[in-house]
Amino acid sequence: MIHRAACFAMGTRFELVLDDVDPSRLGPIADHVLEEVRHWHDRLSLFKRDSFLSFINEHAPHEAVPLEPELFSLFELCVSVHRASDGAFDPAIASVMSALGLHEDAVLPQGSVAPERPGPGRGMGAIELDANRRTIRFLASDVVLDLGAVAKGFALDMAASHLREFGIERALLHGGTSSIVAIGAPPGADGWRVALGPDADAPVMTLCDGALSFSAPHGRTVEGPDGRTRATHILDPRTGTPAQTGVFATAVASALTGNAVDPWPSTRCEAWSTALVVLGERPDAMPDTLTSVVASGSRAPRKWKVAGPHRPYISSPAPPSPPVSPGSRC
Amino acid sequence: MSDSESQRLSLDRREFMFTTGTAGAAMLALTPEWSFASLTRAEPVNIAIIGAGRHARAMLDEIAKFENARVTAICDIVPSRLQAALRRVQGATGYADHKELLSKATDVTAVLVVTPTHTHKTIAIDAISAGKHVFIEAPLAHTIEDCAEIARAARSSSKVVHVGLYARSNPIYKLARTFFRSDSVRDLVMMRAQSNRKNEWRVPVSDAKDEKALNWRLDPDVSIGLPGELGCHQIDVISWYLGKYPTSVSGTGSIRLHKDGRTIPDTTHATFMFEDGARLDWSATIASSYEGQYEVLYGTNATIKLAWTAAWMFKEADAPTQGWEVYANRQRFHNDEGITLIADATKLASQGKLKEGVGLPNPPVYYAIGDFVDAIANGKPPVVTAEEGLRATAIAILANQAVLGGKRIEISDDVLKV
């Protein structure tokens, strides 16, 4: 029996579709998992003064702040993608975002100001993680974390981990439809089919035991560099100005590689899809385990440039059955 | 003295040991405790946490913010929960049995009891007997008799026994209370409180033998329902603000959404009457989340709305204007405009940062733990005593009985005393 449940968190709607041999468990399990999403909303919101993220932003410039293991992993991953993307992904520039008027309701530390010189050594480049003590510390006073979509991916990964602990083998979770995690596949199918766009002829991704994140330059806008036109809300952290590439980007990752489970596929995809919008194309340093799907042109692009291991799983509107990987249950 | 003043200031038979705020204090003079900075100078308090469910996880998160408190032992009967909690706390030792923890974890000086309500009595009394400082989550217990036993044990202890009625540690609630107990509200008209959420109240159980232990909230033998688990905190808020307890409660309950065989109502209403005619209309549901959790105290001059991490005052048009209001931050609620109650308003206003003071800087549980640790470190009495926990819980238990029976119950003084 298919069970659906949803909640509002992180400024969007999270939805869960799951299936199990024992339908009586589904309601309580869905409840438990959505509570996990709300938990991370409460902890990672930039818009709640009592969130742990606000606590970090307030205290980390002055002292090392202890982190729970999952959050330490999250920040390690952020640092890793920041470095691999050559600074194109940077969730530590909330002060810049605020200066551009993008965070009217955000809770920023008292006296925080945007850096005069964005770029190397600023933002995530000025964050110190101590693996032995499991702490985070800011090395510059203008560092302010805003995890944005990465928090959404992280909440989905945490939710998925709970589903797996409960033995759920078929589920789809999404946050605002742009961040998706798939566990297994629907009965009789090879995977969960996800259209990369609203139109009927948009390409379709078949997702099984993996995650997908879609980033687009439209949505919220700010005043452009010329002072007259509007520009995307996604900033190029290297310059502190709106990203100019105009591309739509999707990152796809597997949660399973053989018997190994990646606990953070959705977090990884969120970080990389944002970096791809900034970079405009797939960089050499993007891990081989991730697929990139990049398009440009209009709000509903038709031509997508696909690279990476999931390429066979992306199809035209009438999707053929994708090949099944050896050892995969999908 | 007006009737309203005499109503607020008189000591009647239902005023038990309330510590009054500074009546008449204006926002300009208020500097409530927003942090426990002084604690950082004290020796660390070694804490054991008994119970490692979701709420314990929130407590672990907050304890990590204190430099002078650390969790050194964790106990839970469910191995997966225990292991998950141990992963979060570096260097802590795990136990499956609280008696073993109390006997072996000799470095522990304070114990947090965060277990199912009906197990509080045994664990709390064992911890008190072992000479520990004890923090007991509210509701205090699932029967009035158990509450009284805990309160008696606490009274005989020289250590801190603190009950987790969070509002009393919450800086915003303390600030708003000073307004309520001054002339800002003037005559109390009525009160309303609700605790709405949409969830199952049922824990997923993989092994049928764990059903009773994990789904105790739905077990009619031990559950005190929504009035007990959610209502006790709000009953305490109202009683603390008024300085008195209700004299009767009537209620109704029904199952509006979760028709899965349970007998514990998922939607409840209760009316609490006070002897001066004041009335609290309270409701709780797990079938709708609309407007969440709040308490509202309506007055002839102003109405105060409390929502755990924020509070507002809505003034009547004919109420006198006070000087500090020119600095106030305001929020719009449909046709009404609320003055946000924040600390250090004058200081923030002079710095142009009034908006940055809106809302509580930490979750309410942080302040409750802070008060507990502060009492231990500095030899202070507990901010919330076991007797206060007994009273709020006893009234909540009676409210649950009223809801289940669809009847009115008189609240005698006897059940409010140890």
Describe what is shown at a glance.
Chain A has 330 residues and is α+β, with helices and mostly antiparallel strands. In chain A, 25% of the residues lie in helices and 26% in strands. An 8-stranded antiparallel β-sheet of chain A has the order 1-2-6-7-10-15-18-19. A 3-stranded antiparallel β-sheet of chain A has the order 3-5-4, with helices on one face. Chain A has a 3-stranded antiparallel β-sheet with strand order 8-9-20, with no helix packed on it.
Description:
The complex is a heterodimer of chains A (330) and B (418). Chain A folds into two domains: 207 residues, T-fold (Roll); 96 residues, Orthogonal Bundle (T-fold), CATH 1.10.3980. Helices cover 25% and strands 26% of the residues of chain A. Chain A is built from six helices and 20 strands. Chain A has an eight-stranded antiparallel β-sheet. Chain A has a three-stranded antiparallel β-sheet with strand order 3-5-4, with helices on one face. In chain A, strands 8-9-20 form a three-stranded antiparallel β-sheet, with no helix packed on it. Chain A starts with a strand and ends in a 15-residue tail after the last strand. The C terminus of chain A is likely disordered. Chain B is of the alpha/beta class. Chain B folds into two domains: 218 residues, Dihydrodipicolinate Reductase, domain 2, CATH 3.30.360; 131 residues, NAD(P)-binding Rossmann-like Domain (Rossmann fold, 3-Layer(aba) Sandwich). In chain B, 31% of the residues lie in helices and 21% in strands. Chain B is built from twelve helices and 16 strands. In chain B, the strands form two sheets. Chain B has a ten-stranded mixed β-sheet. A six-stranded parallel β-sheet of chain B has the order 3-2-1-4-5-6, with helices on both faces. The two termini of chain B are 34 Å apart. The N terminus of chain B is likely disordered. The interface between A and B is medium-sized, with 28 and 27 residues.
